[in-house]
Design brief:
Elements lengths: L19 H15 L3 H14 L4 H13 L3 H14 L4 H13 L3 H14 L6 H11 L3 H14 L4 H13 L3 H14 L6 H14 L3 H14 L4 H13 L3 H13 L12 H10 L1
Helix pairs in contact: 1-2, 2-3, 3-4, 4-5, 5-6, 6-7, 7-8, 8-9, 9-10, 10-11, 11-12, 11-13, 12-13, 13-14, 14-15
Pfam families: TPR_1, TPR_8
Protein name: Tetratricopeptide repeat protein
Keywords: Coiled coil, Repeat, TPR repeat
Length: about 280
């Protein structure tokens, strides 16, 4: 599964700054960053670090800028320095963990998330984040436990519920996954991406060789979003399993027309090659 996580600047103002001047510089840099003037903010943080090297806040916020620039090693270095000066700041530790995640260093991300859990297990989204890192390492059993822990804290957490379904599919817990789809669509009837859920639900039915049930769910997906490229491609594959080549090719051509191949979530697979050969 692919990760779809947004990067946000954690504009952290550290309380234990050694002087008012250092605090003023840090605050000024934060305000510039909020206005989108990232390069100017970076210069202010650098100035604060040179003048007040024992102040943790500027290191944190320069690290945030490095992270935005995808200079992950430099970001982690700054977060580490900030934590040496202010070791109890869990927000900085969380930023460092998320940066490891961004960089694909999932083991180190898990280590930092675990440290936060040991100190404050109620920290927002912490079990979800650690679960995501474990998913990337294909540690599905461990990820399942983390998501279940996250749902004990926030039972209506949509992203945890959907990822838990995906894990159950990986673990071949198909009946549980099907029941979870039923539950989640009833609890979140106005969720903006409900068409994706129905598409995934259809894919599960297709995987367990129940194409008639799959067709019902993919039709609901396409009812919610008419020009859903992946939905049309999925329905083409379902029609193929139902031996309806005419409808399969109609949906496949529609998906291609909707730029399926340019969709970042699409990957060419055996079914695509089969449909392409059949429908040319």
């Amino acid at each position: 599964m692919k990760k779809i996580l947004a990067i946000a600047i954690l504009l952290i103002t550290t309380q234990n700054l050694i002087s008012q001047t250092a605090k003023e510089l840090n605050t000024k840099g934060i305000e510039l960053a909020k206005k989108g003037k990232i390069d100017k903010a970076f210069s202010i943080f650098e100035k604060a670090i040179k003048l007040y090297p024992d102040s943790p806040g500027p290191y944190t916020n320069r690290g945030n800028v490095y992270r935005m620039r995808k200079e992950y090693e430099l970001a982690i270095k700054d977060y580490t320095k900030s934590l040496k000066l202010d070791p109890e700041n869990l927000n900085v530790l969380y930023a460092k963990a998320n940066t490891y995640l961004d960089a694909g260093n999932f083991e180190m991300a898990i280590s930092d998330y675990s440290e936060i859990i040991d100190i404050k297990p109620s920290f927002s989204d912490i079990y979800f984040q650690r679960a995501y890192a474990k998913i990337r390492l294909e540690k599905y059993e461990e990820a399942k436990i983390d998501l279940e822990s996250q749902l004990k804290i926030s039972s209506k957490d949509f992203k945890s519920l959907t990822n838990l379904i995906n894990i159950k599919k990986e673990l071949k817990l198909f009946e549980e996954a099907l029941a979870d789809y039923e539950k989640i669509v009833s609890e979140f009837p106005n969720q903006p991406n409900l068409h994706i859920l129905y598409n995934n639900w259809a894919s599960l039915y297709k995987e367990i060789k129940k194409p008639e049930e799959a067709l019902v769910k993919i039709n609901l997906a396409l009812k919610l979003k008419k020009n859903y490229d992946i939905g049309h491609f999925n329905r083409a594959g379902i029609y193929l399993k139902l031996n309806d080549q005419k409808k399969a090719c109609k949906d496949f051509k529609k998906a291609i027309k909707l730029n399926l191949e340019k969709n970042e979530h699409f990957e060419v697979d055996e079914e695509y090659e089969q449909l392409k050969k059949l429908c040319e």
